[in-house]
Amino acid sequence: MDKNRLLKECIQASRGNFFSLEIPANSIADGEDIEQMARELEKEGKIKIRDCVHNDIFVYVHGIVKYASN
User: Fold this and answer.
1) Superkingdom of the source (predicted)?
2) Which of 2, 6, 18, 27 lies most in the core, judged by the most C-beta atoms within 10 Å?
3) Range of the structural domain that residue 37 is part of
């Protein structure tokens, strides 16, 4: 998974501006990579993360999709 695909999934999963995703992760390292990509999207101003939790099985990301560009 890359940042663009993660952003696309956030937009598709959104209700209004809010989104909630459960992304399967094969390992802890995969979960950390997904969390890192989500943090990068937040730094770019494309999403706002409210909650990001990862364990061995999945990564749960909850937040807001920002439509306005800076």
Assistant:
1) Bacteria
2) 6
3) 3-56
